[in-house]
Amino acid sequence: MANGFRERVSEFLFRNKCSDELNLTHRNIFILPSKLGGMFLFFILLVFVLGVNYQNNLLLLASYFFSCFFVYALITTFNNVYGLKLKLDYASPPFAPNHPTLKCSLLSKETCLGVEIIYNKKTTLFNEVTQNSILEIVLPINSRGKHCLDKLKIQSYYPFGLVKVWSYWVIESPIYVYPSLGAIKYSKISPIISDDHEFDCLTHFKPGMSQTRIYWRHYAKSKKLVVKEFSPIVENAETNSPKVLDFFTIEGDKETKISHLTAALLSAYETKHTVKLKLPSQPMVTCVTSEQYHEAWRMLSEL
Known about the structure:
There is one protein chain. With 303 residues, the chain is of the alpha+beta class. It folds into two domains: 2-176, no CATH class; 190-196 and 233-302, no CATH class. The protein has seven helices and 16 strands. A five-stranded antiparallel β-sheet has the order 2-10-9-5-6. Helix 2 (35-53) runs antiparallel to helix 3 and helix 6 (254-270) runs antiparallel to helix 7 (290-302). It is rod-shaped and about 105 Å long. It starts with a helix and ends with a helix.
């Protein structure tokens, strides 16, 4: 029964707040006295009781004055955040283990003062919210995958600290963290390393050659240093056909395969190659545009 009550309360608090944009109105703003405001109300009640008990008009007048002051604080604090608009700009998807950054715009027709944004117990204070106020939050997630964000809390005690207004914002769009980048060292992937050359053969390592071309996998098996040689790409239909990055042809465990495919896609993206990505239980994806590459990384992050 207690859980059902909590669910109903949670549903009431977060109604109409799951979106990429939040506009604070009387429908989603909550207002209550703060701790200081509670003590102030107790003080008003005490002055009023003393005025009635001793029939002291001066104490009664003081209690009425303090009551009007508290009502003024109530209205001022509410109007301070009324009309404030929060809008999600973007959440940059990094490669693991980096943390994504959430960027939001705070918009208001009138200046809002003393606004606090709380996420994951960390508070960002805006002394003054103007037309171009930007909120940036480094999210505490760094593992690959599709992540849903916790709620953001918007609150203010302006101007006197007697009243607290707050609201919640649940961002609807998920946040992606792309897989970590693995080394590109498989012959299925090596043709897309260079913009003008493709893999040709292996030759013995000689002093003066670049160590980045050493084929370390061959060295682990035979203890002989060899390097990869690349030949210029011939402009014909066969070589211009998109390279296929096949999940099943890469050795290693699942995470290793995903890391190597992620790095291969990044290499192809930087060299402006067209590639095809083949994943288990997924249709083959052709990557040409930036959006298609990001879609491929999102698929890998959820694999």
